Amino acid sequence: MENIKEKILALAIVVVLYLFVAFAVNTLNPVNPAHFVDPENVTMRTNLIALLVLGIVGMILGAFFINVESIGAGIMGGSLLITIHGAFWFYILSKSDYERLALLGVTLIVLVYIGYKKFGLKKQRKI
């Protein structure tokens, strides 16, 4: 039963963290809804970059600094949703393929680094 409670706690953290960060970014730097999908909207682009950075920072915190499994997993899951949200809209609003390529490349490199450092091979194989 404890395992189910931990999973529910992790899922609750995922949802609430995502909603909290998305709402906080839009509250602190409001976007005019009439110009929401305008690629020239600097405020929107700034918010999306902030979401990406916060998502990646949250994944690092969840992976390396939170020792309670359910809380760390919840923070990583919420951060994943934040990163997806920011990446999706930044990709839609991006002016060039180079911006898109840079966004996806940097995000991929950071995620692979996190995975390798945190979950990589614990023991080296004997040849």
Summarize the structure.
With 127 residues, the chain is mainly alpha-helical. 78% of the residues lie in helices and 0% in strands. It has one domain (2-119).
Helix content percent band: over 70%
What is the CA-based Rg, rounded? 17 Å
Shape: flat
Order of helices and strands: HHHH
Q: Kindly state the mean pLDDT as a whole number?
A: 83
Question: Hey, roughly how much beta strand do the residues contain?
Answer: under 5%
Q: How many DSSP-defined strands? A: 0
From the helix content, strand content and strand pairing, which structural class follows?
Answer: mainly alpha
Number of domains: 1
Low-confidence stretches: none
Main beta-sheet annotation:
none
Q: How far do the termini sit from each other?
A: 42 Å
Task: Count up the helices.
Answer: 4
Task: Write a structural description.
The protein is an all-alpha fold and 127 residues long. It has one domain. The protein is built from four helices and no strands. Helix 1 (2-28) runs parallel beside helix 3 (69-93), helix 2 packs antiparallel against helix 3 (69-93) and helix 2 packs parallel to helix 4 (97-119). It is flat and about 50 Å long. The chain starts with a helix and ends in an 8-residue tail after the last helix. The model has no long low-confidence stretch (mean pLDDT 83).
List keywords for this structure.
single chain, 127 residues, 78% helix, mainly alpha, flat
Summarize the SSE layout with pairings:
Layout (H helix, E strand, L loop, with lengths): L1 H27 L13 H24 L3 H25 L3 H23 L8
Helix pairs in contact: 1-2, 1-3, 2-3, 2-4
